[in-house]
Amino acid sequence: MVRTVSKLAGLLISACATLPAQALEVFTCEPEWAALTRELAPEARVTSATHALQDPHNIEARPALIAALRRADLAICTGASLEAGWLPMLQQRSGNARVQDGKPGMFYIEDVVELIDKRRTVGFNEGHVHAEGNPHLQLDPRRLLSVAAVLAERLATLDASRAAQIRQRHAAWAADWQRRIPAWEQRAAPLQGRAVIGQHSTYAYLWLWLKLRQVADLEPKPGLPPTMSHLQQLQQQVAREKPLAIVTSLYQDEKPGRWLAEQTKLPLLRLPATVTDEGPAATLAGLFDQLIAQLLASSKP
């Protein structure tokens, strides 16, 4: 009997030793961070709070998201007040000490990259302006290199049993990404110096990287819906600037941009601002491929 019990115990210990380590539970506030996490740690269980058809500034703190954050070993969010309207509530209701501010399981992207358009102060009547800087940095592939390096180390620290694999994947991803960036820049070279009309500052990092100019905004003030009087004023500006296109994101109301496009005969581009659930922009690389392709297509006579 003793011999049998010892043998069974030995078999159990051996079996447990061969079991894979439990996968990390990762909660991301935006789809781009979910996509990047899957590149670096494909075995992680990843939940994104938002998708490409949602405005990340404003979502409902649904019970399913509270439950996902409660399970999370790591939460990845942009910060810079992008999620200020809903993330603190999720953190509080989740009761998960690992993903509270200041803890190793709470990772704000704003802490590891330089943001553009920082403000010392924001006036009461200036609209929805982020004093910490523009949070839509996911549309600059160069900044994604910096994010990926820090994220890989955070994932490796939290999942020590897979640390070597995570670092290897990051090295391969970074090498591939560094090859892609100059190829994208060369492909987009005909766009340099061209003007666009946008909505909000959603694509500011993309314009900065590709050297385009946003000369007007469909919003009269950041975060305020376009008004008819403002759109009528933009008609005169279009005649002066001769922009390439009117650009809005998939989650923004199509009607204001459509009206201005019809009045001015400019093309209206509905671009993804992040990775999509399916289609050519379903990966980070595919996102930049599609953005450049659509912009180039609109530049043809």
Account of the 3D structure:
This protein is of the alpha/beta class and 301 residues long. It has ten helices and eight strands. The protein has helices spanning 2-18, 31-40, 63-71, 87-94, 141-158, 163-187, 204-210, 228-241, 254-264, 284-299, and strands at residues 25-28, 45-48, 74-77, 106-108, 195-198, 213-217, 246-249, 268-271. The strands form three sheets. A four-stranded parallel sheet has the order 2-1-3-4, with helices on both faces. A two-stranded parallel ribbon has the order 5-6. A two-stranded parallel ribbon has the order 7-8. Helix 7 (204-210) links the parallel strand 5 (195-198) and strand 6 (213-217). Helix 3 crosses helix 4 (87-94) and helix 6 (163-187) packs parallel to helix 10 (284-299). The longest helix is centred in the middle third of the chain and has 25 residues, at 163-187. The protein starts with a helix and ends with a helix. The model is unreliable at 1-20 (pLDDT under 50).
Descriptive key words:
single chain; 301 residues; alpha/beta; 4-stranded parallel beta sheet; 45% helix
Q: Considering DSSP H and I runs of 4 or more, what fraction of the residues is helical?
A: 40-55%
Low-confidence stretches: 1-20
* Major sheet: 4 strands, parallel
Broad structural category? alpha/beta
